[in-house]
Amino acid sequence: MTLETVLIANRGEIACRVIRTAREMGLRTVAVYSDADRGAPHTLMADDAVRIGPAPAAESYVSAERIIEAARAAGADAIHPGYGFLSENADFAEAVAAAGLVFIGPPAAAIRAMGDKAGAKRLMIEAGVPCVPGYEGEDQSETALTDAAARIGFPVMVKAAAGGGGRGMRLVEAPEALPEALARARAEAESAFSDGRLIIEKAISRPRHVEIQIFADAHGACLSLGERDCSVQRRHQKVIEEAPSPAVGPALREEMGRAAVAAARAVAYRGAGTVEFLLDANGGFYFLEMNTRLQVEHPVTEMVTGLDLVALQIRVARGEALPLTLGDVRISGAAMEARLYAEDPAAGFLPSTGMIEIWRPASGAGVRIDSGVAEGDEVSPWYDPMLAKIVTWGETRDEARRRLIHALEETALVGPETNTDFLIDALGAPAFKAGEATTAFIEETWPERPAAKAPVKEEWVLAAAIALDADRAFALDRAGLIGADQLGWRSDGPARAYLTLETAGEAAALVATPIANGWRVTLGAETLSVELTGEGTARISGRRRRFAAKARAGGEVALALGAARRRFFRAAPAGKVVGVAADGLIRAPMPGLLSEIAAELGATVAAGETLAVLEAMKMQHRIVAPVAGKVTAVRVTAGEQVASGAPLIEIAPIE
Q: Are 386 and 322 contained in the same domain?
């Protein structure tokens, strides 16, 4: 079969990733975009780009009809779905085939079989694949689910029957927490997958999440390409992945590989797929689900095997046989991937939005950056908050880990809040360094939540020097015949500059005087010299530092220094206060859709009680009462789109 033009039915970094390989294979590429992504990097990389609708995914990236219309308009003969959106939608795969196009993915029947977690689990039991005890029944009444949970025994996991990515999933420790968990999981599942069916499984204490990459062709070959360890997760979504797993030896790898191949053969699989398992402390493993698509974390497998999984997908879709056998698969060294998210770990990993002021990806030996962003892009609340993947390879696991820390420090993304600092801390945590992280790693390492780090003196003084240099350049540009050495000149010595900077809810008053190539900056009782020695380098009191920065005269400074990512302001930024003010006003912690308002005017609420549910970036976030009190005002209604910091509900605290 000949393929000439591939349309990528996705956005962001995965669209860029697929475009890169497709073009290397001599294929013409077509991007699609919503109004929110007009001019995005993936649209500029492709040979052609087609608008498919407004920002909401349901009206653009999840509209099968619009995707297929775009493919026809652009003359595409194949569609690659990437991951997320329509990638595991069996109806879409069938519609693509019905339109006379090639779907670069598994058969629709396999997607449908594995997309239904309840049915998939029954199939796996028949195929002899180890499974966690649970309930996958058709009776979806609260009574049936409650009875099932009681039989299985707490703690249990409540999961959406259709879907993945941590959506529609809740850990329930005790019976009294089950009703709300069922309601929230069902609502999230209906929102994400248009399917509110649930399953219940026995929760395995502190397991590892280990998955097997498989590949199958239409000629009967089905191979295991080794495992990935994806145990570092928050809200059931992966954060750091690695290959191979530090908990898996050759014998266990072979056993898990056989089980994964059996799972794939049970549904006549074709193409790239991932069989996910929970691995307990005794080496027992249990089928979790099968992702019938390319995984976000596929680069770590590529780094240790030397294979291009997207190229293999395209070859299999063209009807070719896999160009390798199981004996050809070699695992070399170790690879790690960190997902760079637009989120605030100190605020409970809430998604963050805003313009990307600085984007400087790392480079170097053993470093790979998969991204789909550019400076000036607006990170919106419409899509998943992942912005880039930082991937490293090393001869040993520790070399890959240390390279990843360095690459994260060198990768500067400033604008929305990011998890850069948190990722570096996680990679340096003793449990992770020792290869002992389980799915409880984040919860156990940060039982409250990761604390925000206050800016240190080097950040303050460097930001001040950069701000003052921007002021000086602005003045010089308008100074006519006055030379740079005459700006600020006084007969009694250099003029002092006074400024107050604010960032991360803190403020500092600084005094600076010009010196050669920089400034002498006083912060409190300490004075440091800051020499701006070149593009992206400074000498702070004799110590050379690398940084990335962008400044506006009289305005803000965006700064990346080490692991810190800051935006400094001359005046207090508007709209930064969220949560409960002194008057009891509760504000939206991020932009989103209010899918539910539980608070009623005049009602008395307890601390921790759910007041509203905000839907943002494909997740549902509970807004709870911070204190016990009486609801004195409800300023919004269900179904309303709100901005970050928007007033929602007022509570009069009960003394």
A: yes
Considering the domain architecture, whether residues 493 and 592 belong to the same structural domain is answered as no
Q: What pLDDT does 478 receive? A: 62
Whole-angstrom CA distances from 117 to 130, 169, 434 are 14, 12, 33
- Tokens of residue 640, six digits: 């309303």
How many C-beta atoms surround the C-beta of residue 279 within 10 A? 26
The Cα–Cα gap between 335 and 302 comes to 9
The CB density around residue 138, as the number of other CB atoms within 10 Å, is 7
Establish if 324 belongs to a structural domain: yes
Q: Looking at residue 162, what DSSP letter applies? A: B
H/E element, 51: strand 48-53
Structure tokens that stand for 34 in this block: 């919503």
Phi, psi of 389 (to 5 degrees): -125, 125
Separation CA 471–CA 481 (nearest Å) = 17
Out of 112, 293, 403, 587, the active site residue is 293
β-pair partners for 335 = 243, 393
d(CA 645, CA 354): 14
Nearest to 344 by CA among 443, 457, 234, 463: 234
Domain boundary at 445, 467, 502, which? 445
Outline where 436-578 has alpha helix (H). Answer: 441-445, 457-477
Alpha-carbon span 292 to 198, nearest angstrom: 19
Q: Among 359, 403, 419, 407, which Cα is nearest to 550's?
A: 359
Q: How far apart are CA 510 and CA 604, in angstroms?
A: 47
Instruction: With respect to residue 118, please indicate whether it lies within any of the assigned structural domains.
Output: no
**Residue 75: CB atoms within 10 Å:** 12
- Catalytic site includes residue 253: no
- State the total domains in the chain: 5
| Residues 418 and 341 both lie in one domain | yes
194 and 219 in a single domain? The answer is no
- Of 157, 185, 202, the domain-final residue: 202
Q: Give the residue among 409, 374, 405 at the shortest CA–CA distance from 548.
A: 409
Strand bridging mode 208-216 / 271-279 = antiparallel
pTM of the model: 0.81
Supply the CATH number for residue 640's domain. Answer: 2.40.50.100
Domain range for 347 is: 209-445
Task: Report the Cα–Cα distance between both ends of the chain, in Å, rounded.
Answer: 74
pLDDT < 50 stretches in the chain:
490-492, 572-582
- Please give the pLDDT value at position 577: 29
Q: What angle do CA 387, 181, 281 make, to 5 degrees?
A: 70
Count other C-beta atoms under 10 Å from residue 65's C-beta: 10
In this structure, the dihedral spanned by the alpha carbons of residues 37, 314, 294 and 257, taken in order and rounded to 10 degrees, is -170
Single-letter residue type at 32:
V
pLDDT for 205: 84
- The CATH number that applies at residue 29 is 3.40.50.20
pLDDT at position 127: 95
Based on the number of CB atoms within 10 Å of its own CB, is 97 exposed (0-12), middle (13-18) or buried (19 or more)?
Answer: middle
